[in-house]
Amino acid sequence: MQYTAETPQGSITYELTRKSVKNLNLRIQPDGTVTVSAPHHLPQQEIDAFVCKKARWILRARQRALDTVQVAPPDFSCQIGDEVQLLGRTITIELGAGQPPASASQFGPGVLQGDHLILYPARSDTKGRMLAFRRFLDVYAQQLFDTLNDEIAPLFSPLGVPKVPVTGWWMRARWGSCHTGSQKIILNKFLVHPPLQCARYVLVHEYAHLVYPNHSAPFHALVQYMMPSAKEQKALLARYSPQYEKTIGISAKEP
Ligand SMILES: [Zn+2]
């Protein structure tokens, strides 16, 4: 059921579900919808009062959700015509039959042709298509990270920083990490979705950690020196959220 609470910040409409739960739960969905689940017998005024008390937080979180760039529609299932963001561009999924042509199997089971990604899944059901898409992203991400590594490592070599391996992971909570002990950098494979400058920024940031293993003023100055537009890229990246478990069916793990 939909209800509207009048709050000092204006009216807030929310979807209420009654459940056998102990506490009130409030969530902001990716499309900005406010959902509340409440115990069966809790009076309606108490729920409205709760929404009222949280109004400021709700409006902020809703704005953040609406500002977040969706890299794929919530019902993305890799069907013909589905759209997904790749380096900030909209790519349409097509399905090919059989094996990818040998001449074009640069990205595993996927072939990029202009604004189209032609996938060659081993099985044509949803699971098979999503698996092919994931394999494509794995190969695509690693090639992207290798290319960026070739570009960025030389910028740091005058500072005595060696070129280190850059590996992709699906991560939930971070864009990258730098392991100064084992001398390696891990980047979130989700970086294949935002514009290229975002991945470049994250790699510059992680390489700078090989000079300063902290977020001190000299660290930020170094990042800024290596990439004058670092602040813009960071702000652009903040509009993306690695919520791919729902959208592209990949489960994340932390290294
Ligand atoms: Zn950092």
TrEMBL record:
PANTHER family: UNCHARACTERIZED PROTEIN YGJP, UTP PYROPHOSPHATASE. Coiled coil: none annotated. The lineage of its organism: Bacteria, Bacillati, Bacillota, Clostridia, Eubacteriales. It comes from the Bacteria. InterPro entries: UTP_pyrophosphatase-like (IPR053136), YgjP-like_metallopeptidase (IPR002725). This is M48 family metallopeptidase. Residues 22-239 form the YgjP-like metallopeptidase domain. Gene3D superfamilies: Metalloproteases ('zincins'), catalytic domain (3.30.2010.10). Pfam families: YgjP-like (PF01863).
